[in-house]
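Model it.
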Amino acid sequence: MAASCRWGSIFLTHEDIAAAGEAIVARELTAPPVTHRIKPPRAALNRLLNLHEAAGHLAKTAPDILVKPEVARAMDQAVVEAMVGCLASDDPVNDRHAYRHHAKVMRRLEEVLRAGPEGPLYMDDLCKTIGASYRILHACCREHLGMSPKRYLMLRRMYLTHRALSRGDPEKTSVTEIATDFGFWELGRFSVVYRSLFGESPSTTLRRPPDDPGPIEVAGANR
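Modeled.
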């Protein structure tokens, strides 16, 4: 199964798509019997194209970053998720059990976050570990946290990145290196969100002396 983009092609096997679809949208995405073009929703297609463009930009501006396993993993997961968004139907899934075990799902989420590493967590892996589809996890996070699980994980990674930048040595590391360590490889988008949360650019945080607390953090913006 392949998806054509303006800058090349992204290829995923049927098995990869089926597994990702089961984890993210709670149903298997199967290939049609006859090859045909798929016209996904504009927002989903734009997300996929933006990811492709960001990967190309990173390859040109910071090629050494791409050999890092976590960066490759982050890019792979982002593209798979975007592909599922393009291929999945907008038809609602009739899941009679979607709201029965919200408290259990949230407890399991907290356990996974406490036990897991401080690096990036990916949505399909998280759903498999918790034992809930993305639709159920999304409903639980909206109910208990007031935001989507994607945004919750993004904020978690953003605060971990902020802490690493605050402790980093600008002579030995860079914003790009630290950001990609935490799964942020769309660097332009990362900088915009970072500034909206912390009131300054990532480079300013990295250059600040350890005894300077900096601006007050603004949490939970734009849920």
